Amino acid sequence: MMTISMKAVIAFAVLTMGGFYLWCVQAANDPFDWSHDKVEFYDMLGRAFAQGQFHLPLEPPPELLALPDPWDPQQNGRFAAYDLVLFKGRYYLYHGATPALILFAPWRLLTRHDLPEPFGAFLFCFLGYQFSCALFLRLLDAMGARPHAAVLGLLLLALGICQGAPFLLQRVLMYEVAIAAGYFSVSAAFWALAEGVLFSSVRPGLLAVSGLMFGLGVGCRPHLVIYAVAAGVMLWLLVRRLRPLAFFTAGLAVCLIAIALYNYARFANPLEFGLRYQLARDSYYRIGPALMNLAPGIYYFLVSTPVWEPVFPFLRLAIRVPLSLPARYFVEPIAGVLAICPAAIAGFAATVALPRREIRTLARTICFGSLAVVLAIASLGLVSPRYELDFLPTLVLLACLLAVWRWRLFAGALLLYSAIANLALGVQGPYDQFVQRYPTAYVSMARWFSPIARFRPLYNPAVEVEASFEFPQSSQPGPMPLISAGRFGSHYQVTAEMVGNGKVRLTSVSPLIPGTAAIAEVDAPRGTPVRVRLVYLPERNRIVVDWNGQTVIRQEIPFLVTAPEQVNAGEYRTDFGPVPFLFPGRVFAVSKTVHPYR
Questions:
Q1: pLDDT at residue number 1
Q2: Is 20 domain-assigned?
């Protein structure tokens, strides 16, 4: 019997996580707009379903249709709506009809308005988390485990933090909506499966619901069919009766048949999800499963390490290239789950440590399914940290069970580290949009975790940097770093590029003003040091760059967020690189002052 204090702890944890997810989605995305039609892809698909059609209410430009090969990224760059599917003169989404079917189209029919995609992703993540909590609590009950209320609350929070949803919500487009809906579907499916077979008696109705939810997951992300197959095998191993398996299979078959009919109606092929007709960039044009993609994919999804640094939020994703990548390979900054969520290790340990054969069988089903999903994604040659939500939440759930039942210190330590790492990623997101949208709030938050002044991010500090540079005797290709400040979302840099005749081209650039840069061409005699001085005037948001005592660049930027430690001469850390680029010549006589502007 659950006590009042336990119920209060559960309610507190769920509401806290819901508030955190809502903060994540609002910190980096546009404000929710409930009253206007949108060009967001899932809103268009929901509008199409509400109108009784499968193609999007968006007309391809005639120039695109007139191309000899409109799918060729070398030809369609000016006209293509990337990541839509073009087939017989109409636009479609590839896989992923489930979110439109169960949320966006019903909302459109009820309100005559579109549902904001970021809110849809939030709702799916929050519902997925609640089903994970329900499954966790039910398994605890089946194990006869009675953790202290405080321990239970912490584990429920870990269940929502350690599995990638906060990071996913920091940038929501159609991709994140499909992934979030897949998380919800799989979480609900495993809950219904456990309720239907692991307790006092087999409940066929819940097994049908489980199959249906696994099928809806396939409608979000086709490779999630792996979980459905693994669950069907588990069901047979546990009950050895055809009737329960028939109910489960019937629920699953409803969705799989509907998906096949949907594909046939669009592309005249029940097995075609549209990827052959996707408008894609060069790096992932007509990409597909291949054995050569497996090794780098496994590396990136499992063991690639992030960059740790002493400045808030302390952890950043990176693109590492330890292996020779295939010619066509798409990779975003990423860290493997064993580096940012080693609690997954405890999840695998749960397959032998948990009590009761039924619960161990469920744990093995989850682990086998997760590994198979990793292999399926890795084979595609598409690497993104958002895909980790496809396989990480259930492993974290197993780790939380292990932290209650056995090896508490081991599992608890892994969960604590995983929570810290994923909180850092949840603040940063894939593109550091929180600091770009709300720089003062970002700096206020960072102050709480930055006791050492040199590592404390500042908003619009007064900055003055001066250094002497001696350019190399031989010509160097590409830009060379002179002075930089900040990181990623609010970085700033001045670079120099040798253009011949003893001249270099200075470029002053900030991501806060995309597509624009201040440029000046100056003299840089070989073997003669030049003196560069940069001043940031916070009262005017102005960058001033002097070259040998003469002002050559004046540029206004919206703001600057940097810690003193992040102001450097002769080096620049790229957005995603694990090591800095260094000036190839000599750098000396460096002086800098960075202090808060009053």
A1: 60
A2: yes
Q: What are phi and psi of 287, to 5 degrees?
A: -80, 150
Please indicate, yes or no, if residue 438 is contained in any of the structural domains. Answer: no
Tokens of 64: 């695109």
Judge whether 274 and 266 are in contact, CB under 8 Å.
yes
User: In angstroms, what is the C-alpha Rg of the chain?
Assistant: 27
- The string of DSSP letters for 227-250 reads HHHHHHHHHHHHH--HHHHHHHHH
- Give the model's pLDDT for residue 79: 81
CATH of the domain at 536: 2.60.120.200
Q: Which domain holds residue 105?
A: 4-428
Query: Please, are residues 299 and 336 in contact by the beta-carbon 8 Å criterion?
Result: yes
What is the reported pLDDT for 94? 87
How far apart (Å, rounded) are the C-alpha atoms in residues 548 and 550?
Answer: 6
The residue among 588, 581, 562, 577 whose CA lies nearest residue 496 is: 581
Q: Which of 428, 443, 464 is the last residue of a domain?
A: 428
- Cα separation, 554 vs 294, in Å, equals 49
Q: What's the whole-number mean pLDDT along residues 302-320?
A: 91
Q: Report the distance separating Cα 101 and Cα 399, nearest Å.
A: 33
Share the mean pLDDT of the chain. 90
- Count of structural domains within the chain: 2
Respond yes or no on whether the N-terminal peptide bond of residue 580 is cis (omega within 30° of 0).
no
Q: Which of 411, 428, 445 is the last residue of a domain?
A: 428
pLDDT category at 311 given cuts 50, 70, 90 is: very high
Query: What residues contact residue 499 under an 8 Å CB cut-off, 6+ apart?
Result: 505, 521
pLDDT in tens, 227-237: 999 999 999 99
Same domain, 115 and 167: yes
125 and 171 share one domain: yes
Q: What is the pLDDT of residues 472-508, one digit of tens each?
A: 887 778 888 999 998 877 888 999 998 877 888 999 9
Q: Which residues in 404-461 belong to E strands, given as ranges?
A: 458-459
pTM: predicted TM-score of the whole model, two decimal places: 0.93
Instruction: Round to whole Å and give the CA distance between 371 and 348.
Output: 10
Query: For residue 180, what are the contacts with CB-CB under 8 A and spacing of at least 6?
Result: 120, 121, 122, 124, 125, 128, 165, 168, 169, 389
